[in-house]
Design goal:
- By secondary structure, the protein is α/β, with parallel strands linked by helices.
- The protein has 4 domains: about 90 residues; about 290 residues, Rossmann fold; about 140 residues, no CATH class; about 55 residues, Alpha-Beta Plaits (2-Layer Sandwich).
- It is about 45% helix and about 15% strand.
- It has 28 helices and 21 strands.
- The longest helix has about 35 residues.
- About 35% of the residues are buried.
């Protein structure tokens, strides 16, 4: 029958300090026994021994006194051993102690992230002295990656608590509150982010890109090099539709997109995905643009007449060759002296003679590059080859053309970026550049569920991620030039990361390059994915391991992927373990077989047993451990920014769970996250 917990609390110190208690009690008993039963020195026999053999007499006296102390020690040791064996219950050691106070992130003085509670390092049992596993600021900059199967608790146990703790830090300080970007594919994470920001008083710092919002985002409107933009588009196409064995096609449509981007930038200084689509899909549009832009580099003088004057004398002016130019908002024709005299003598219209403003030398160089590629390379392709190259692009670019909502949000007119009113989008406003958003403490969320359009969601999320990463990396020279300034940390959070990851040796914007440099510009990357296999399936390049090693803190939840379990077990390392083996052998002499029983027997026999100890390396966490983890139960390999922390069981703190309730208490009362309002 199990004794009460109160009695067990009394018994526990007796067992833990039984050696000290045995020594103390035996010393006390020895003193009492020595005073009650001292050695009888008047005994004739003892007196005779002392006179004849004094050394033997002294040995007898010291032995008697020693027994007065040692005998009680043996008795008390036996008593405490019986208590330990028959009364003390080890289950008491498994009772979870109270967690230390959880500091509200709104009042923290130092930036940190509490991942969860730690009890015992290598066994999933409660501890009387649990503690929080906290990653300090310097460790956050080295990145956090979470792996877990569907329903394992990645979002509730890591993503939501991370957003709550990080975005609540210094929420009332305009200079120190954190900025960030949140990418998702489910459609509910941004809604929960808004509630978190409202909880910490930062609801006005939130900007959301969605099909129903008023924010507009053009992924091509930045200062990124035309080749880098074209390569990004090609990489996304490859990640969505796969990579062929022949690299010619990918290289060709990368070149095509690159030079179309250059051409539009020379002409307008602005372009969208729709502009690229309409340029490459039309058979003659690209050549028309070449001729149109080429005329702008001419030094020919022009005569310009406004609309009112032209309409008044249209009969005379139309045969001369005046054409309407949108960019100039004038009717233009090449200047000749005879034409100028004709207008002076036969019309009263006001006109202007001017020479087109020359382009910069850099723009001329770019145009010459485009011109050389077009006339010396593209024009020599057979029509069926051109069709194949164009088809590889338009399948992707048509995502922005066919849906009016998508076109309005992600292909806004140039007027919006110039701050002019736009009749086609009266409520639209453009998303500021990411460098401004980061330095002003803004938080951007992409609310574009993958169920609406998987390819488009992946495309927009990847473009936003690349824009953000580029803005973060550009902080490095600025921070180096102004060491006296305070630069706020910024947070990159991505759930279901396999949908947005880009990596590889031939990708100049691979995520592993960004994560390896994220510490210096003070970026905190936190990503969650289902498994290592899902990352390998999503990425066309063999750079997954390079990507994972750039994220120093790993959180492994329950998984059904053998490759993830194997990777986690290897990452946790091995330790020296002692293996005990027994060998039993039997030998007989003069053996014979019984006539009745048919069994062997002998008159002499011997049995020997041997016990061997052997040291060998065993994983700290076997692969099976990661299959058997429960929800919100994880194995964490953490890094604090200076040294790696030992792998340990860690119990995540779901966002709905009270901070003072341990994971084991949750298990006892049966907390159901589906019944708790998040």
């Amino acid at each position: 029958m199990r004794l009460s917990a109160t009695f067990q609390q009394i018994v526990r110190p007796l067992v833990e300090y039984r050696i000290l208690l045995s020594l103390g009690l035996s010393a006390a008993c020895g003193i009492v026994l020595n005073s009650l039963y001292p050695i009888n020195q008047v005994n004739p026999l003892l007196r005779l021994i002392s006179l004849e053999r004094s050394s033997i007499y002294l040995d007898l006296v010291w032995s008697y006194n020693l027994f007065l102390y040692s005998t009680p020690f043996l008795v008390f040791s036996m008593m405490f051993s019986l208590i330990y064996v028959h009364i003390y219950r080890k289950e008491l050691e498994h009772a979870a102690g109270s967690l230390p106070p959880f500091v509200d992130p709104r009042i923290r003085q130092e930036l940190s992230l509490v991942l969860g509670e730690v009890h015992r390092q290598l066994v999933p049992r409660p501890s009387p002295t649990p503690r929080w596993l906290s990653i300090p600021e310097r460790g956050l900059y080295t990145g956090i990656a979470s792996f877990g199967s569907i329903g394992s608790g990645k979002t509730l146990g890591l993503i939501l608590p991370a957003m709550r703790q990080l975005f609540a830090y210094r929420a009332d300080d305009p200079e120190r509150k954190l900025s960030g970007i949140v990418l998702e594919v489910k459609g509910d994470l941004c809604r929960q982010l808004q509630r978190i920001l409202m909880w910490c008083g930062r609801e006005t710092d939130y900007d959301e890109i969605s099909l129903d919002g008023d924010l507009r985002y053009n992924p091509l409107n930045n200062t990124l090099d035309a080749y880098a933009q074209a390569f990004n588009i090609a990489s996304i196409i490859t990640s969505i539709w796969g990579k062929g064995k022949e690299p010619f096609w990918q290289q060709s449509y990368t070149d095509l997109v690159r030079y179309v981007i250059l051409l539009h930038r020379i002409r307008d200084g602005y372009l969208t995905m729709v502009d690229i689509f309409r340029t490459v899909i039309s058979a003659g549009r690209l050549e028309e643009l070449m001729i149109e832009v080429g005329t702008r580099f001419s030094t020919t003088s022009y005569i310009g007449i406004d609309t009112e004057a032209y309409l008044e004398h249209e009969g005379l002016l139309s045969p001369v060759g005046f054409e309407w130019r949108e960019d100039e908002e004038l009717y233009l024709v090449a200047w000749t002296e005879a034409l100028e005299q004709l207008l002076i003598q036969h019309t009263s219209a006001e006109f202007a003679v001017y020479t087109r403003r020359p382009y910069q030398a850099e723009q001329r160089d770019h145009f010459e590059s485009v011109q050389y590629w077009y006339w010396e390379h593209w024009k020599f392709f057979r029509s069926e080859v051109k069709t194949s190259i164009v088809q590889g692009i338009v399948v992707f670019l048509s995502l922005f053309e066919t849906d009016a909502k998508v076109r309005r949000v992600f292909c806004p007119p140039k007027e919006l970026y110039e701050g002019k009113p736009c009749s086609s989008d009266l409520k639209g406003r453009v998303l500021p550049p990411f460098d401004e958003l980061i330095e002003s403490g803004r938080i951007v969320g992409l609310n574009f569920p993958v169920a609406l359009n998987p390819a488009l969601a992946k495309t927009i999320g990847t473009f936003m991620k690349i824009d953000y990463q580029r803005a973060v990396q550009l902080r490095i020279p600025i921070m180096d030039a102004h060491p006296e300034r305070h630069f706020r940390p910024t947070v990159f959070i991505c759930d279901e990361y396999q949908n947005f990851a880009t990596v590889g040796g031939d990708n100049p914007t691979g995520d592993e390059r960004f994560y390896s440099m994220s510490r210096q510009p003070k970026c905190i990357p936190i990503v969650a994915t289902q498994s290592v296999s899902s990352l390998k399936e999503a990425l066309p390049n063999e750079g997954v391991m390079t990507l994972l090693q750039a994220l120093r803190t790993k959180v492994f939840l329950t998984t059904t992927d053998p490759e993830t379990a194997r990777y986690a077990s290897e990452l946790c390392g091995k330790a020296d373990r002692t293996r005990i083996s027994y060998t039993v052998s039997e030998s007989n002499t003069n053996a014979n077989v019984g006539l009745l029983s048919g069994r062997t027997s002998s008159s002499k026999g011997s049995v020997s047993a041997s016990k061997q100890y052997q040291k060998h390396k065993e994983p700290l966490f076997e692969e099976k451990v990661f299959f058997d983890l429960k929800n919100a139960q994880s194995v964490v390999v953490a890094f604090d920014g200076i040294s790696p922390l030992p792998p340990t069981y860690c119990y995540l703190k779901p966002d709905f769970l009270p901070s003072n309730m341990s994971w084991f208490e949750q298990q006892q009362i049966g907390f159901d996250p589906d019944k708790i309002s998040t």
